[in-house]
Known about the structure:
Layout: H1 2-11, H2 19-34, H3 86-102, E1 111-113, E2 116-119, E3 127-130, E4 145-152, E5 158-165, E6 169-175, E7 181-183, E8 188-190, E9 196-201, E10 210-217, E11 220-227, E12 235-244, E13 247-255, E14 265-275, E15 278-283, E16 288-290
Antiparallel strand pairs: 1-2, 2-3, 4-5, 5-6, 6-7, 8-9, 9-10, 10-11, 12-13, 13-14, 14-15, 14-16
Amino acid sequence: MPMRRSARLSAHLPARLPARLCALATLSVLALTATGGVALAQTQPYKPPPPARPTGIAPKGDFTKGLEVARPELDPGQAAGSEGSDEAFRAKAEADAIRKANVGGGHVLVKRAGSRLMLPTGSGRPEVFDSVWPNASGNNEGAYEDYRFDGLSPDREFFVVRATFYEGSNVYWVSRKDGTRYTMHGEVRPSPDGRFLVMANASVAHDFNGIVVWENLGGRLVERFRFSPPLDGISFYRFMRWKDGRTVELEHTALGDEITCHGGTQEALAVLTRDGEQWAVKDVTASRCRR
């Protein structure tokens, strides 16, 4: 029987094909017939394409897209607060600051997505601040953290972020170049030439109380001086002005002593001065009592 089927199939092949091709065609047809007319192909193992060779060039684009999902909140309306509340004031102030910073800022901008604040940096990775907004019932209120964009530094090299906690507050400068965070504690005042930054903050309890000086070295801040008044007496310093590139005038306030200023405060003019690489603070006028 196989011989007859082979003969019939060979008879239908064109006569003008060479004998060798006819034989190959006959064998192929026999193989199809033997397998019920289904061709069996050899399966080659899958080889994934080789990975792209790194170019060393950071890709362009908006790197905040995958981060725009706000963190879940127990009460989404808690952040906005009622009209006239501290939360509403901070939200409005931040919206104004973001709008001003984003004018002419290119395709990657400062963004707010619910409780998440995103700051683009030159490194390609945005710096992210996640606020914690407890619900209106007051549960977990001790975990309260609120981060708000406050604008750009005077030289526009840093983002300024204000933080409000359940107890206390803080100020951060974030490098627009590489995202480095610097804890500044309070309002920062640059020297006339921009080389030095001074901060004088007054706090009774939870925040930093004292004076800090940084030097700006090409966008990198290095702390040069830090002074905190002794804890045995309440003493505060308030920034007044840069007198020149090496002298800062401060207002010094302390609780009055029991003999000469009972129940009042003692006020004096103080100066923060730089001598070479050294900084020092001292009163330059006699204190006067104010009740």
